[in-house]
Amino acid sequence: MSSPLSLRHYSHELLSHSHDYAQLVFGLSGILEFEVAGRGSQVNRQTLAVVPSDALHACGSKRGSHCLVLDVPCERWLQQQLGSHLEATRRLLEKPAAVSLTPAQSQLVNWLAASAINDPVIAQQGAALLLASLTHADTPVHESNALPLAALDAHIDQHAAHPLQVADLARLAGLSAARFHVRFLSETGQTPMDYVRSRRLQLARQLLQSSTLAIAEVAARVGYSSQSAFTAALTRQFGLAARALRVQRD
Fold first, then answer.
1. Which pLDDT value is given to residue 203?
2. Rounded to an integer, what distance in angstroms lies between the CA atom of residue 230 and that of residue 192?
3. What is the dihedral of CA 143, 144, 147, 152, to 10 degrees?
């Protein structure tokens, strides 16, 4: 049996997939934008995201995030390891949720993250301890209701070359355009269209630095029909024009 516990680093690169087992993602450092079945949340220190089996989920971290991940083993393993905690664990894993950890649970997560989790005894018993600890009534569990930023980012990237309206993004979040605008400004500190503009320019910088596409072609791919307007926008955003960004490396 492979280890149910692993340490993972997430970057700005958006990951989107599903798998036939449930998963728990515990934040250790940084902020991980997480979206499961259309529900958005943030995974950071002292929180975790619950990913049910076969649930489509997406995640990414602008500044990098380090997490402890528990790939929940099969039903037989759960029955053997969890005893009286089995039914509560099944309920926990049924639907997407965000969980705030108690100090004791955070201590356990941090101890396991610093341990030899490639050791099968530590990994198996550590996973069982984590699952059992999450079934106590004092663990605050709630369905995630933050905006699905990972799904919104994926939509913006996919349609960067075309006009985007607030209503398009609001529809993904299941909100009216007016309510979405208010929620988005509250959660991100930006208006939706400012966010779209910034996301497009970040994509443009990546294309300039990782490809040999002509500047006009890069501009078109991120929704600018005018190369001069594109260059002006880049200068406002990054303090450098397109040609200077092309030779710049982080």
1. 93
2. 19
3. -100
Q: Which of 238, 72, 58, 214 is nearest to 149 (CA)?
A: 58
φ and ψ at residue 28, rounded to 5 degrees:
-110, -45
Residues with Cβ within 8 Å of 247's Cβ and at least 6 positions away in sequence, in order, are none
pLDDT tens digits for range 155-196: 899 899 999 888 888 888 777 888 888 888 888 888 999 999
- CB neighbours (10 Å) of residue 185? 14
Q: How many CB atoms lie within 10 A of CB 21?
A: 14
Cα angle 122-128-134, degrees, rounded to a multiple of 5: 130
At 250 the pLDDT is 47
Lookup result for tokens 């309920």? 91
Q: What is the pLDDT, as a whole number, of residue 15? A: 83
What are the residue ranges in the chain where pLDDT is below 50? 143, 250
What domains are defined for the chain? 5-142 (2.60.120.810), 149-247 (1.10.10.60)
Q: Are 61 and 12 in contact (CB under 8 A)?
A: yes
Sheet strands side by side (includes 15-17): 15-17, 57-60, 32-36, 39-43
What CA–CA distance (Å, rounded) separates 200 from 202? 5
DSSP type of residue 145: -
| Residue 215 confidence (pLDDT) | 92
The C-alpha atoms of residue 132 and residue 237 are separated, in whole angstroms, by: 48
